[in-house]
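Write out this protein's structure.
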Amino acid sequence: MGDHVSRRDFMKKTAAAAALIIAGPAAGVLDAENVFAAVKKKNSIAPIIKSDVKEIGGKNVIWLAEDSPEYKKMLLPKINLPLIAQNGGLVPLTIESKYPMKKGNYIKAFHVFDFNNPISKVATFNLTPENGKAYISTRIKIQQDSYVQVVTEFSDGKMFGGKKYIKVTVGGC
């Protein structure tokens, strides 16, 4: 069998060839190798940023491992993302917790971050005891393979972070 060319590589090479055809004769100095190198450099993926949210609004964020007893005891939310997103423009995200939403003691907000996106703060979802339960379901945009971070803010001001890794085949930003 011959070499397999991904759709993304095919599109890059087609764009480079079109640029060469259009600009090549006018520029006089462009050759296919230089055009391909320029396209590759422009379209290269940045390394995955692994830093965690340190604070929000002057309050420190505490990070616990999702499988730790403390995490489970506190009923911190479960972050549901697909393992692989075929389309980074429409990635389903669900955040849910069994934490009781009682007046004076409830989950006040979910803050969602992705440091690999052009704008790292994806969303903030404010909650009240009237919500009945701490549950959010939405779709977000993700540019590349990344750690989506969710910071849970409690009504007493404490903040705890959790994150989930996701692979993205076609970026959405």
